[in-house]
Amino acid sequence: MTLKKVDIVKNVMNKVRFKRRFKSQQQYLFPEMDCIFLTGKRANKIVNSLFEIIKETLDRGEDTNIYGFGKFQVRFKWARRGRNPQTGEMIILRSRRIVTFRASQKFKEKINLTRGDH
User: Fold this and answer.
1) Most buried among 55, 74, 85, 86, using CB within 10 Å?
2) Domains of the chain
Protein backbone atom coordinates (compact mmCIF):
# COMPACT_ATOMS: atom_id res chain seq x y z
CA MET A 1 0.00 0.00 0.00
CA THR A 2 1.23 3.45 -0.88
CA LEU A 3 0.48 6.25 1.57
CA LYS A 4 -0.55 9.41 -0.26
CA LYS A 5 -0.83 12.93 1.07
CA VAL A 6 -4.62 12.65 0.81
CA ASP A 7 -4.51 9.66 3.16
CA ILE A 8 -2.42 11.62 5.65
CA VAL A 9 -4.93 14.50 5.52
CA LYS A 10 -7.83 12.09 6.16
CA ASN A 11 -5.99 10.55 9.13
CA VAL A 12 -5.33 14.02 10.56
CA MET A 13 -9.01 14.87 10.13
CA ASN A 14 -10.11 11.70 11.92
CA LYS A 15 -7.57 11.61 14.73
CA VAL A 16 -6.82 15.23 15.67
CA ARG A 17 -9.40 16.86 17.90
CA PHE A 18 -9.33 20.09 19.85
CA LYS A 19 -10.90 20.44 23.29
CA ARG A 20 -13.54 23.10 23.69
CA ARG A 21 -12.70 25.85 26.15
CA PHE A 22 -16.14 26.10 27.70
CA LYS A 23 -18.54 23.22 28.25
CA SER A 24 -22.27 23.47 27.84
CA GLN A 25 -24.61 21.30 29.88
CA GLN A 26 -25.04 18.92 26.94
CA GLN A 27 -21.31 18.25 26.88
CA TYR A 28 -21.36 17.03 30.47
CA LEU A 29 -23.97 14.46 29.45
CA PHE A 30 -22.27 13.56 26.16
CA PRO A 31 -18.46 13.78 26.52
CA GLU A 32 -17.93 12.96 22.83
CA MET A 33 -19.35 16.42 22.05
CA ASP A 34 -16.47 17.98 24.02
CA CYS A 35 -14.19 18.26 21.00
CA ILE A 36 -13.96 20.14 17.73
CA PHE A 37 -13.12 18.19 14.58
CA LEU A 38 -10.87 19.51 11.85
CA THR A 39 -12.28 20.32 8.44
CA GLY A 40 -10.67 18.93 5.32
CA LYS A 41 -9.31 22.34 4.32
CA ARG A 42 -7.73 22.95 7.71
CA ALA A 43 -6.20 19.46 7.89
CA ASN A 44 -4.84 19.95 4.36
CA LYS A 45 -3.25 23.27 5.39
CA ILE A 46 -1.64 21.63 8.42
CA VAL A 47 -0.16 18.76 6.39
CA ASN A 48 1.02 21.08 3.60
CA SER A 49 2.65 23.47 6.06
CA LEU A 50 4.44 20.56 7.75
CA PHE A 51 5.87 19.38 4.44
CA GLU A 52 6.83 22.94 3.48
CA ILE A 53 8.71 23.40 6.76
CA ILE A 54 10.62 20.15 6.14
CA LYS A 55 11.42 21.14 2.53
CA GLU A 56 12.59 24.64 3.50
CA THR A 57 14.81 23.25 6.25
CA LEU A 58 16.40 20.73 3.88
CA ASP A 59 16.80 23.40 1.20
CA ARG A 60 18.89 25.45 3.65
CA GLY A 61 21.11 22.39 4.13
CA GLU A 62 20.00 21.68 7.70
CA ASP A 63 18.98 18.28 9.04
CA THR A 64 15.39 17.58 10.05
CA ASN A 65 15.03 15.29 13.05
CA ILE A 66 11.53 14.04 13.91
CA TYR A 67 11.63 12.37 17.32
CA GLY A 68 10.46 8.77 17.21
CA PHE A 69 10.42 8.71 13.39
CA GLY A 70 13.80 9.51 11.92
CA LYS A 71 16.21 12.03 10.49
CA PHE A 72 16.28 13.60 7.03
CA GLN A 73 19.76 14.71 6.00
CA VAL A 74 21.11 16.61 3.02
CA ARG A 75 24.30 15.10 1.66
CA PHE A 76 26.64 16.36 -1.02
CA LYS A 77 27.77 14.08 -3.85
CA TRP A 78 30.86 15.12 -5.78
CA ALA A 79 31.00 15.09 -9.57
CA ARG A 80 32.09 11.73 -10.93
CA ARG A 81 32.49 9.71 -14.06
CA GLY A 82 29.57 7.60 -15.14
CA ARG A 83 28.42 5.51 -18.07
CA ASN A 84 25.34 5.72 -20.25
CA PRO A 85 23.86 2.20 -19.96
CA GLN A 86 22.26 2.31 -23.42
CA THR A 87 25.31 3.38 -25.42
CA GLY A 88 28.18 2.59 -23.05
CA GLU A 89 29.47 6.16 -23.54
CA MET A 90 31.45 7.69 -20.64
CA ILE A 91 29.83 10.84 -19.19
CA ILE A 92 30.49 13.19 -16.27
CA LEU A 93 27.78 13.29 -13.61
CA ARG A 94 27.50 16.72 -12.00
CA SER A 95 27.86 17.30 -8.28
CA ARG A 96 24.55 17.50 -6.47
CA ARG A 97 22.81 17.39 -3.13
CA ILE A 98 20.67 14.41 -2.15
CA VAL A 99 18.27 13.77 0.72
CA THR A 100 18.76 10.66 2.82
CA PHE A 101 16.53 9.27 5.55
CA ARG A 102 17.68 7.35 8.58
CA ALA A 103 14.99 5.74 10.74
CA SER A 104 15.18 6.24 14.50
CA GLN A 105 15.87 3.31 16.81
CA LYS A 106 12.32 3.47 18.25
CA PHE A 107 10.84 3.34 14.76
CA LYS A 108 13.02 0.36 13.80
CA GLU A 109 12.00 -1.49 16.95
CA LYS A 110 8.31 -0.83 16.32
CA ILE A 111 8.53 -2.05 12.72
CA ASN A 112 10.32 -5.23 13.74
CA LEU A 113 7.84 -5.97 16.54
CA THR A 114 4.77 -5.58 14.32
CA ARG A 115 6.08 -8.11 11.81
CA GLY A 116 6.62 -10.70 14.51
CA ASP A 117 10.41 -11.02 14.09
CA HIS A 118 11.38 -11.20 17.77
Assistant:
1) 74
2) 1-60 (no CATH), 61-118 (4.10.520.10)
